[in-house]
Amino acid sequence: MDIASYLSKKRSSFDEKSGNIKDFVVFDYNYIPEKPVTREEAKQIVNSMLQFEMSGIPTHMAIIGSRGSGKTMILKYLKELFQNETGLDVLYVNCRHYNTSFKIFAYLLDNENSAGASLVDLYQRFMQQYKNKTVVILDEVNLMSSKDKNREILYFLSRSEQPYMVIILSNTPHVLKQLDPATRSSLQPLPLHFKNYNAEQIYEILQDRAQKGLHNWDDGHLSQIAALTTQKTNSDARVAIKTLYYKMMNPSDDTEKCFEDARRDIVIDVVNDLADANLMILWAAATNKSDLVKDIYKRYCRFSQDHQIKPFSYMYFYTNLGYLQSVGLLALVATKIDRIYTNRVVLTFDKTVAEQICKLRFE
Ligand SMILES: Nc1ncnc2c1ncn2[C@@H]1O[C@H](COP(=O)(O)OP(=O)(O)OP(=O)(O)O)[C@@H](O)[C@H]1O
Ligand SMILES: [Mg+2]
């Protein structure tokens, strides 16, 4: 078949499959619903922000919740709401894209002439530009570069004589332990934990998407997807939304198959998002004969040296295993060997995925 006929055939089959979809936007992870499914914890953020608006005294916050628990969506929603309804300025930065204090300030200053400036220069300019009461949301703060270990921006903003309130978001609590003592004591963030959604909440999220984005659907499928998502993931709403998408595009497929496909795709995203050092740890775990932590550490050190990267200390390596556990890629299982307790590493997904991504990144 020539390529033009192939295109036209493929296109009509795609049209046929997507006939039931009214609006694709509901399957976009960046889509912000008009009325998000309520999360009790959101009220606490609203209260703190309102208090800040009235008093100018900030309550800095650290919002911790597992992947797909709605952190980004809710804070982006609140940003719009507060900007329209109150006198606060609200800034949002994703630290995945701007991963040092310098880059974050430069971004918030519209990247004007940051070349040659020092961090203090940028902070001074920031104070010039933002004189109003300002909330700074730093999303995925755990992904800041190890070059900026102390996350200096947190120190500047929390020590400022101008009214700034900082909200950091992270899917791992480690980030709070990593703050240096000076920053911790001036920031003193109020920790707020986003609980994992229950099946009913996931169901509501799916139903809201269905109402906006689909012509027809079966509520039974939505319940089934919600149940699978809460039982087999940390209630990652992204997996639920993607499963619904696959089910709509391939109605004859079993819902469980759609769920497994969605879960696999999302694992690939998570592994791809890892920083080099964490990916290398995962690589060592995926390819080592022994699954004992100390043996994996040896292999990890060798891999790092082969790639001219300085390996982490054993302690820091352990902290990073904890991180990989918190994003759902592995489980640390306590085990007793020769009367001594140690941990085994059990990967929770197909090892070949890790191997393929590592090859692409490092070879
Ligand atoms: N309460 C909710 N109402 C409607 N949609 C939701 C809700 N919570 C999450 N979602 C949807 O689920 C998806 C994942 O949410 P979000 O991106 O906010 O997760 P996150 O907690 O930021 O995850 P990560 O830690 O991976 O960044 C998004 O598409 C979001 O719109
Ligand atoms: Mg997020």
Describe this protein with a few key phrases.
Rossmann fold, single chain, binds adenosine-5'-triphosphate, 5-stranded parallel sheet, 363 residues, two-stranded antiparallel ribbon, 54% helix, Helicase, Ruva Protein, domain 3, Arc Repressor Mutant, subunit A, 7 strands, binds magnesium ion
Main pleated-sheet profile? 5 strands, parallel
Task: Return the CATH class of the largest domain.
Answer: Alpha Beta
What Rg is obtained from the alpha carbons, in whole angstroms? 23 Å
The averaged pLDDT comes out at: 92
Extended strand count: 7
Task: Name the CATH superfamily classification of the largest domain.
Answer: P-loop containing nucleotide triphosphate hydrolases
Q: If classified by CATH, what would the architecture of the largest domain be?
A: 3-Layer(aba) Sandwich
User: Per CATH, what is the topology of the largest domain?
Assistant: Rossmann fold
Distance between the termini: 37 Å
Low-confidence stretches: none
Structural class: alpha/beta
User: SSE order in H/E notation?
Assistant: HHEHEHHEHEHHEHHHHHHHEEH
Which band does the percent of strand residues land in? 5-15%
Which ligands, by name, code or SMILES, are bound?
adenosine-5'-triphosphate, magnesium ion
Helix content: 40-55%
Helix count, per DSSP?
A: 16
Count of the domains: 3
**Strands in their spatial order, largest beta sheet:** 2-3-4-1-5
The global form is globular
